[in-house]
Fold:
Amino acid sequence: MSQQRTGLTRRQFLATGSAVAAAALVAGPQTVLGAEGSVPLYQERYRPQFHFTAAKNWLNDPNGLVFYEGEYHLFFQHNPHGKQWGNMTWGHAVSPDMLHWTQLDHAIWGDSLGPIFSGSAVIDWNNTAGFQAGKEKVIVCIYTSAGGSAGFAQSIAYSNDRGRTWTKYDKNPVLPQIVDGNRDPKVFWHEPSKQWVMALYLTKHDYALFGSPDLKKWTKLCDVPMPGTTECPDFFALPVDGDANNVKWVFWGGNNAYMLGSFDGKTFKPDGAPIQSHFGKNRYAAQTFSDIPPGDGRRIQIAWLAGGKYPDMPFNQQMSVPVVLSLRTFPEGVRLCLLPIKELDTLHGKQHSISGPLKPGDNPLAGIVGELFDICAELDFGAASELGFVVRGLPIAYDRKAKTLSCQGASAVVEPDGGKIRLRMLVDRTSIEIFTGDGRVTMVHCFVPPADDKALSLYAKGGDARVGSMDVWEMKSAWPQEQRAKN
Ligand code: FRU
Structure:
């Protein structure tokens, strides 16, 4: 019996706990590729062009983000059998640049321990788990076995062939249920204490850290309460203002809030309350890559753009663009900044550069039409009381007096910098990702634009403003022509 056939939604399933969940098993492998209807896969009207989507069916959280031997791996919560949440497995895709993805076979299917919920992946460089069979280093996935014979417990699976085939550890689970519903293990190697560390969501607003020498035996290190936050933790260190001698730990939760603090290999001590980084409607369950080479050194994150609509499409839901995280000092304190990866520039097509006066009634973007844009703007209010964009019918407005940026009824406070605001907006077929306040403030929105509206506008109200500088790039699709033809 699948969750779908029990008629449970994702929330109901999680709220119901193990008893019903135990019945929710996953059927065996089946292919997900192939044309549906008259429109070939990847050529559909609402297929995002530079955001990852599964070829078919439902996806939610990014899982197991890891880099190995020139490949970025993106695993993802996937229902192989339907367009709604259910039957959770780990789908799998690889990419050389986090933009051009090739979907592989499913990596992990459900079993008697339950369907496969969210988790992470690491490279076991020193073969601590003893799974290494040949020269290749082993990729180990750590995931939640959700509500089968052991309740909600943490399990592992490994690959000796760069993620092409997977073996589940025969003594799973490696961490038995602590409280019903505990889930979403995020694991990393902590060199100073020479152990693997796992951040795990427990229940309500409670998380905990665990330590292990070998990914198989886990002991609790400390509790991490995080008011207002649930699910999908991440935990990592970042330099403040690029200073390697001033490092802070970031404990991240499912709703894009984070706590800064310190970690000594045993206890995470937060400096203060959770801080919110996202103010839009559709960003959730983000996690960062493991094992990015030190020479690159970036902390790169992908989120699920939760809740978008994709009318009549063979797939449902999309991922965010990858973003780079950094800690910077602002007047209000140290803040986490999220900014798109530089690789996105490789998708830039035709460029439109604009600067100069912006009077009420002007629209310097008139005549630029399309579906995919990267917009980078520095706007000076001058005498205006409101500045804004309309992107394919979707208004994004900045109110000077209230100091708020608003979109789809959501708003964020953004302090202008010397009377100026800077915005980066990535527009795909059904989404817009807005980065402002140097990345301290993100607003991510899904929308279904009218087919006949491909226009952009920029406007000022209440007085004359000025476009300090602005570049609008038409974006190219990340789905290569061959892949679109192949599928
Ligand atoms: C977050 C979440 C996770 C869980 C997964 C199930 O979106 O609820 O807590 O592991 O989705 O699909």
Q: What stands out?
A: The two ends are 30 Å apart (CA to CA).
